[in-house]
Design brief:
Radius of gyration: 18 Å
Shape: globular
Largest sheet: 7 strands, parallel
Structural class: alpha/beta
Strand order of the largest sheet: 3-2-1-4-5-6-9
């Protein structure tokens, strides 16, 4: 196998499941090391145990939306992982709710997550700059930031993800002089545990099958579909790509597939 990530370390925020865990696995399979950050201790331990069979991995537990926990995390990243040259921001929550029913708690859920990603990225980027080896950052944005979908009203979520897309472009400009590339992926419906926030776990797979026809390719995405593109953007294969927001969406943004 092509060892694209030999002697490189990736930090994956939200790396205990879904797309984050899948990209950590790819980096490990291709010669790198991984640090996965998660909120739930049980999920973190399970993910580390699974990934450790593939390559060297560390797990860090933190509620990144908590100021004190985030500061402790940043201190540990600086102490133990200032040699990382890759960062993936994969933490996310998705709870569709009509705009007229949102309260401040619903809004803050997304706002606090964006704040956490902003300052974790700042800390990791500072370490990359000090290391002087360049680097690559990939944010997981969302198709919902580009297109409103009637079946999944997501105003606050989409506003936050649009902000993440914008941050991607600003950081690409500001960090380019340090050899650090910053890109994002913008997925459509991908089968990951994020939907367990509002659909019972055992029903997620069946519920998402109703969205197969929404994608011109004819199926919802898998975590690995997006993770492979993220790994591509992390690697030197895309050394001339920065500030890009790639649609990894089964063709949804190409145009309307059908009218129901």
């Amino acid at each position: 196998m092509h060892q694209r990530f030999t002697n490189q370390k990736v930090i994956v925020v939200g790396g205990t499941s879904g797309m984050g865990k899948a990209v950590a696995r790819i980096v490990l399979e291709e010669g790198g090391r991984a640090v996965v950050i998660g909120h739930r201790d049980d999920k973190l331990q399970a993910a580390v145990a699974e990934l450790a069979a593939v390559g060297p991995v560390d797990g860090l537990r933190a509620d990144i939306t908590s100021g004190p926990e985030r500061q402790a995390l940043l201190a540990r990243l600086q102490r133990d992982h200032a040699d990382a040259t890759l960062l993936v921001n994969a933490a996310g929550v998705f709870l569709p709710k009509p705009f007229l029913e949102h309260d401040e708690g619903d809004y803050d859920l997304y706002l606090d997550l964006n704040k956490a990603v902003f300052f974790i990225t700042q800390a990791v980027a500072r370490s990359m700059v000090a290391l002087r080896k360049g680097g690559a950052i990939v944010n997981i944005g969302s198709m919902w930031a580009r297109q409103a979908i009637e079946a999944t009203p997501s105003s606050a979520y989409s506003m936050a993800k649009a902000g993440l897309h914008s941050l991607t472009q600003h950081l690409a400009m500001e960090l380019s002089g340090h050899g650090i590339r910053v890109n994002a992926v913008s997925p459509a419906v991908v089968e990951t545990p994020i939907y367990e926030g509002f659909i019972p776990k055992e029903q997620v797979h069946g519920a998402l099958q109703g969205f197969n026809g929404f994608h011109p390719i004819g199926r919802v995405g898998r975590a690995e579909d997006v993770a492979r593109t993220i790994a591509h953007l992390l690697s030197n294969d895309t050394s001339w790509v920065t500030g890009a927001i790639w649609d990894v969406d089964g063709g949804v943004m190409a145009g309307r597939n059908k009218y129901n």
